[in-house]
Amino acid sequence: MLLLQWPRNVLGALLAIVVLAGCEKVADSEYKATQYVFGTLVEFTIRGVDAKVAEDAVAAIGHDFQHMHKDWHAWKPGEMSDLNRAFAAGEGRDVSPFLLPLIKQAKVLYERSDGLFNPAIGGLIGMWGFHADELPVGTKPDLDAVRALAAKAPAMDDVVIDGSHVSSRNRAVELDFGGFAKGVALDRAVARLRALGVKDAIVNAGGDLNTIGSHGDRPWKVGIRHPKNWGVVASVDLAGDEVMYTSGNYERYREDDGIRRGHIINPKTGMPVDHIVSSSVIGREGWLADAAATALSVAGPDGWYAIAKRMGVKYALLVDDQGTIYMDPAMAARVVFPDGAHPRVVISGPL
Ligand code: AMP
Ligand code: MG
């Protein structure tokens, strides 16, 4: 079974609406249900439990998602945007136990990615118009203003955590957790499923997914997205409890004066990265794999290997503009290309 990709534009109108479609029995003891979080349709496939257990689990997760959508939103009213306003005013805030772990994780990810994953650059993301759940908004930013903000070097290590009090040494810091919030959300979703006794499930948010167990007597088989055509580059089997996240700057971009710029920003320059690339990471935890996929997109075909190594990634695959595939040998041993596909492949050293 190759998992369907959900084009984001189709979902645009449904933004911020959290709907519970209920659980539908699709096969003997297999249930499917959907929820929305962060503008993405999340599809649950749950096997081997009673319908009631599956339904209750999905309802509880829907509640969690609603909370996350509101309070982890960087620019809509909520706890995060309030904290960002405090930073800009040179103030701090006491932060809820709901948000605090995310800020701690963001600091870890910043360190581990050598600063390429930097959720403190919300100001730059906003300038480029990517403070929108779907298509970019606004006109082309003033490049001098972009350079000036990048020169202030907002970074996660400017953020100071003292107990539950959070402040920033740099007023230019604006948190935006768009690069790993989906991973955190799916980690919480599978934790809930596990706590309710679910042993086999897949939670799929448009190709970013967490698994539990297997699909009965076979592993979960999933597709790796293609940067350009929403098709599938390759498929891979995920073994018990693995996750896979893909990040690409082809999916959300703006075009100004004929120049196409995607939503992945190089924190050092403030500019969208100038290579077209998608990167997929298989790991064990969504928050880490989601952030790593974004960091590898920033690093691109030349820099990804060093960052993957630093972040402890074991399985990575990048696809560039020309369809060339870059991967490590462990990933190469797992992927299966569609019949008749013979892409150019560049294999790195082991991770
Ligand atoms: P993803 O699709 O997981 O790669 O996340 C992309 C989102 O991450 C963007 O829409 C921004 O909100 C945010 N983002 C962009 N560049 C960076 C970066 N260098 N570090 C952290 N987050 C970023
Ligand atoms: Mg990501």
How would you describe what is shown here?
- 30% of the residues lie in helices and 25% in strands.
- By secondary structure, the protein is of the alpha+beta class.
- A 10-stranded mixed β-sheet has the order 1-2-3-7-8-11-14-15-16-17. A 3-stranded antiparallel β-sheet has the order 4-6-5. A two-stranded antiparallel sheet has the order 9-10.
- A hairpin with a 2-residue loop joins strand 1 and strand 2.
- The radius of gyration is 20 Å and the shape is globular.
- It starts with 7 loop residues before the first helix and ends with a strand.
- The N terminus is likely disordered.
- It binds adenosine monophosphate and magnesium ion.
